[in-house]
Design goal:
Chain lengths: 474, 335
């Protein structure tokens, strides 16, 4: 112990507490319990990818020019584009990628982080759904999470569009067309938002930019804060790994010292993984695509994976507009680009309510289900996931056509059938498997109970020396 | 001299010397269980931290000397990635081998706090006890809040024209306007060959105007006897030369695929295809949809060949250009 009075730790804690009165809160925070399961880390990975996104994104803002003013490219570092007309925005990203040191690393890491961010959110959502973690009292946490997923998709789409390369322009005009197809309001809405018919006015880019770097990140950040606060207020859910873990008692590793180095390690690991990807695995080489003009497009374009389900849906819908006489009520892109995601997100939002309504389960839940414990929920979840996944696969039919030579039109017709049939089949199969697994669980449980009883009886008679006391507890 | 030596020695002691053992606390008052030291793990953590510093340093060096290196981005990414991964490894060894990770049991927070709920409800109710016309009051509050919210949103109307949507129908095409290529060179009818397709704009448009949805065309030539144009499109072709809007009526992408029978023996008919969602239009029948998600025919621009052999527009498109909106079929393209 130091001779100059209290040790450093104590003096530091005292300094903070005297100025913030936060010692009770801090103490509680340090001893906050984290039940242990690998799947609980998925949400954390999303959080850390978000941090990497913000950090790399801040760097990118220093180099990006949010203007569609037309310039002629004069960068002699990339001859194929020399002399081409393009927007300042695109020219600035080409310059950032090819003539700014570490620029390409930061841009590619940003792009990879967006992909990993949304992948982590989706896997986290699967975990939450299939274990019933969204049930009372955690519905709010869940709804905030679903909202963040939606905002993240829009945010990623905005970032992709801002570059103004050929691919991003094709993505933007598709988004515009989906907006235009909204019944009754679409034309006015898009005319208003784009300040005129596509490609809109010069005001559009600064608006998209401020939405991408300020409005959406702040919204996501605020919701993220509320999400984490709610998790902490109600505490984590847990699986029933031991008898000590009940609806009333949580068992876990405290935030400090046990959980802190692991979580920080995961943060550093996520960042390291993303920088490795950003440095070693090329993503979206925008200088190869060239600038966007409304009259140019390219074959074989694919969006980032998280928008693949929408391109699949847009391609699958048969070619008709919903019309009454010569009055067009619902133009075609509405079904694949708006109605489909609305149904999926509507399902996600309403599911906790639907389940409560039909199961009559209004109780508090701190213990998680295993997927087999709730066969109906698991079956419906699997059906929904396979529905979206098959539509996603349909989006790759053109690549399958090029790679394997399978006729595109036939593929689309097959998908038009199986996206409805297979999910139902998968749902029933899942339900049956869950039932069987539960039944086999019961057999094992019965056997264990019977064995324990028999052993106890033998023990009472004194036939057998007492063995492992833990065996009895089973 | 000796002072310098003293400084170096004390620096070394500070750096690598082990901390003096505190007087051990009696076991039963500890909050965190006491575990024996683990020198191997400690050494591993130190080594990993050292590797992390080296990698970070490497990143700075690659950045500084990037000009003379063959692959700057992979090296930068590897260095920075490894710096983070070594740090991650160090932290995980700390978590698994050096700090106690015992599990603790604790009560979940109570489901609810009836006492507090009661107090809050009473506070709210009693504070409002002087209000006698409550329903009217709520209505007034709602009205004020709602209109104020509306007022704050009103400036957003300036984003763009909300109601003036006439621009959706306007096109730069007039009777007599020549078709030119990307460099402004007018097309002659003889330039348009079979089994090929051409990008065309109205003569005299600047680069910005070329990006308007109604400006660009896809021009093809078909044998006149193959044409089966419906009655209202009779005479839109100029000796088999057809000029369709280049913008797909589904989702607004440019139609940059032309499937001519020459290239695809198994496809008996020519087709204009959009590569975004593979909407397929039959140019022989006036741009009708034969496959894919498009719901509306591709607009066709009537053409004629002038006495000098140049291609000119005979009028305007037979329908609105670009992706569809509600009521799109009620309108006509306008000059």
């Amino acid at each position: 112990m130091s001779s100059r009075g209290a040790p450093l730790t104590r003096r530091a804690v005292r300094w903070v507490d005297q100025r913030t009165a936060s010692a009770p809160l801090l103490r509680k925070t340090l001893r906050y319990l984290f039940p242990d399961h690998w799947s609980f880390l998925l949400g954390e990975v999303a959080l850390y990818a978000f941090m990497v996104l913000v950090a790399t994104g801040i760097y990118l803002t220093f180099f990006f020019v949010d203007s569609t003013r037309e310039v002629v490219f004069h960068g002699n570092y990339y001859p194929p584009l020399y002399g081409q007309r393009m927007s300042e925005a695109y020219a600035s990203v080409v310059h950032l990628s090819l003539a700014t040191r570490a620029g390409l690393l930061l841009r590619q890491t940003h792009h990879w982080a967006a992909n990993v961010f949304i992948a982590a959110i989706v896997l986290h959502l699967f975990r939450i759904f299939f274990t019933g973690a969204y049930r009372k009292p955690r519905e709010l946490t869940y709804w905030l999470g679903v909202t963040m997923l939606m905002l993240s998709l829009l945010e990623a789409y905005l970032g992709y569009s801002l570059v103004d390369d050929l691919m991003s322009g094709m993505g933007l005009v598709i988004g515009y067309s989906v907006g235009l197809s909204l019944p009754f309001v679409g034309q006015n809405l898009m005319n208003w938002l784009f300040d005129g018919m596509f490609p809109g006015s010069p005001k559009l880019w600064p608006r998209m930019y401020i939405a991408h770097v300020l409005i959406f990140p702040v919204l996501i950040g605020l919701l993220l804060g509320a999400h984490l606060l709610l998790v902490a207020m109600r505490h984590h859910t847990q699986f029933r790994r031991t008898k000590a873990q009940t609806e009333r008692t949580i068992v876990g590793v405290p935030a400090f010292p046990g959980q802190a180095p692991r979580s920080l390690g995961l943060l550093a690991g996520t960042a390291g993984f993303l920088f490795l990807l950003g440095g070693l695995v090329q993503i979206n080489p925008i200088w190869l695509w060239g600038p966007y003009h409304t009259y140019s497009s390219t074959n074989g374009a694919q969006p980032d994976w998280y928008l693949g389900w929408l391109i699949g849906a847009l391609r699958l819908v048969p070619g008709w507009d919903f019309t009454i006489g010569s009055y067009t009520v619902v133009p075609n892109p509405f079904w694949g680009g708006a109605a489909f995601p609305l149904v999926v997100f509507g399902f996600l939002y309403f599911w906790p309510w639907l389940e409560r309504r039909f199961s009559g389960d209004h109780a508090f839940h701190n213990l998680l289900d295993r997927p087999r414990d709730a066969p109906v929920r698991t079956a419906i979840g699997v059906a929904m996931v396979s529905w979206v996944f098959l539509v996603f696969m349909a989006g790759s039919a053109d690549r399958v056509n090029v790679t394997f030579g399978i006729d595109y039109v036939s593929q689309i017709w097959v998908y038009r059938v199986i996206v409805w049939v297979l999910p139902v089949a998968f749902g029933f199969a899942t339900w049956w498997i869950c039932k069987e697994l539960r039944a086999s669980d019961l057999v094992v449980l019965d056997r264990h109970e019977a064995e324990a009883e028999a052993r106890l009886a033998r023990l009472r008679r004194g036939d057998e020396p007492p063995g492992d006391p833990g065996a009895l507890a089973e | 001299m000796s002072r310098a030596r003293n400084a170096i020695v004390s620096a070394l002691v500070l750096l690598v010397g082990r901390r003096r053992r505190r007087r051990p606390k009696p076991e039963d008052t500890r909050l965190v269980p006491a575990l024996p030291p683990n020198p191997a793990a400690e050494l591993a953590v130190l080594a990993l931290l050292g590797l992390s510093s080296l990698s970070a340093l490497g990143f700075i060096l690659v950045y500084a000397f990037g000009d003379s290196l063959p692959a700057e981005t992979p090296l930068l990414g590897t260095a920075l990635g490894l710096a983070f991964l070594f740090l991650a490894a160090a932290l995980i060894v700390v978590g698994l081998k050096l700090v106690p990770t015992e599990e603790i049991a604790e009560e979940y927070p109570p489901h609810e706090h009836p006492g507090e709920q009661q107090v809050i409800a009473e506070l709210v109710d009693e504070s409002g006890s002087r209000f006698t016309r409550r329903r009217l009051f709520k209505l007034g509050l709602l009205g004020a809040g709602g209109t104020l919210g509306l007022a704050l949103l009103t400036p957003a109307v300036s984003f763009g024209p909300l109601f003036h949507v006439g621009n959706f129908l306007r096109t730069p095409w007039r009777r007599g306007r020549r078709l030119v290529d990307e460099n402004g060179r007018p097309y002659k009818a003889s330039d348009i060959e079979k089994n090929d397709f051409y990008l065309a704009f109205p003569e005299g448009t600047n680069d910005e105007e070329k990006d308007q949805m109604a400006a660009s065309l896809v021009v093809i030539r078909l044998p006149p006897d193959q044409l089966r144009l419906p009655p209202h499109l009779k005479g839109y072709d100029a000796h088999g030369i057809l000029a369709y809007s280049r913008i797909c009526t589904h989702a607004g992408c440019a139609i940059t695929l032309y499937r001519a029978p020459l290239f695809q023996p198994d496809e008996p008919r020519p087709a204009l295809v959009c590569p975004c969602h593979y909407s397929t239009f039959d140019p022989t029948t006036g741009g009708t949809v034969t496959f894919g998600p498009a719901g509306r025919d591709l607009p066709l621009l009537p053409l004629y060949v002038d006495s000098a052999g140049y291609l000119r527009a005979k009028g305007n498109f037979d329908g609105p250009v670009g992706p569809s909106w509600w009521g799109v079929r009620l309108w006509k393209a306008q000059p």
